[in-house]
Design goal:
Layout: H1 2-5, H2 10-13, H3 19-42, H4 48-52, H5 54-67, H6 69-76, H7 86-106, H8 125-153, H9 160-176, H10 182-199, H11 206-230, H12 238-259
């Protein structure tokens, strides 16, 4: 509205990158009313139903559109430095963290930081173990997808991964009150920052990207299992929990090939 009062056209009144955020705000308002109608017609969703309710999916999508605004705006600014300072880049970092959290909020039914399957004893352990391992793979792919996207655009300042991981897991901790895993996520983020600073992964350094893609989820879930062992205890064998950390690393490693695919013979070298 301030830009409109200054004489900007309606098309140019909204800063570039925030158009989808405005769509998200409108959609969220409409979705809120739709969710109330859905509850009146079909009742209140419980457990997994709540995550998969059509109106809740629409609301989660709109949240993602809203909070990704600063990230989209930063991506589109051609005059911004590719090696930003932490303080000036913090709105983009927080936007990435909230965008990741919008995704993990709706996929929390398969998130090992929300449901501590390895710490409990279930009637059908195989089913829960299989779900837990699949959730580790899924969340590793989502996490590294967000990381790789940001790495493709910027040389990220130290502290980026610490903020994103800590904030994301802190928000997820409220789902089932599992706050004991917040320090593990913060430490994993700090290790990721150290690794990023040391390896300097980029499209011109594909081996560093591959190593980063493997080590970050591997360390995150290694610290996850070690935290459970020292607190609630763990019912899994070493074969299962250590193998799951390796599988998480493999998922991140394979995803790195989307960021930096292998060079095709005769193709121009990476820049």
């Amino acid at each position: 509205m301030r830009n409109r009062l200054k004489g900007y056209s309606w098309r140019n009144a909204l800063p570039e990158g925030y158009g989808l955020s405005l769509v998200g705000i409108i959609g969220f308002a409409v979705g809120g009313v739709g969710d109330m109608i859905w509850h009146i017609l079909f009742g209140i969703e419980l457990n997994i139903e709540g995550a998969l309710s059509p109106t809740h999916l629409e609301l989660a999508l709109c949240i993602g559109l809203i909070v990704a605004g600063p990230f989209r705006a930063a991506w589109k600014r051609s005059n911004d430095p590719t090696n930003p300072r932490f303080v000036s880049f913090l709105p983009t970092i927080l936007s990435l963290a909230y965008t990741l959290s919008a995704i993990t909020l709706i996929s929390q039914l398969a998130h090992p930081f929300v449901f501590l399957w390895p710490a409990g004893t279930q009637q059908d352990p195989f089913s829960f173990q299989a779900l837990a391992v699949v959730s580790i793979i899924l969340q590793s792919i989502l996490l590294m997808g967000v990381f790789f996207l940001a790495m493709r655009r910027w040389r990220l300042p130290f502290g980026t991964f610490t903020v994103i991981l800590t904030l994301n897991i802190t928000l997820l901790s409220f789902m089932q009150d599992h706050y004991l895993l917040i320090p593990a996520s913060a430490l994993a983020g700090f290790i990721a920052d150290l690794l990023y600073w040391k390896l300097k992964p980029s499209v011109s350094r594909p081996d560093a990207v591959r190593l980063f893609g493997f080590v970050v989820p591997f360390v995150l879930y290694l610290l996850y299992f070690l935290t459970l062992m020292l607190t609630t205890g763990i019912s899994w064998t070493i074969h299962l929990w250590l193998g799951s950390t390796v599988v998480a690393g493999i998922a991140g490693w394979l995803l790195s090939y989307m960021l930096v695919p292998p060079r095709i013979p005769g193709e121009v070298a990476f820049k």
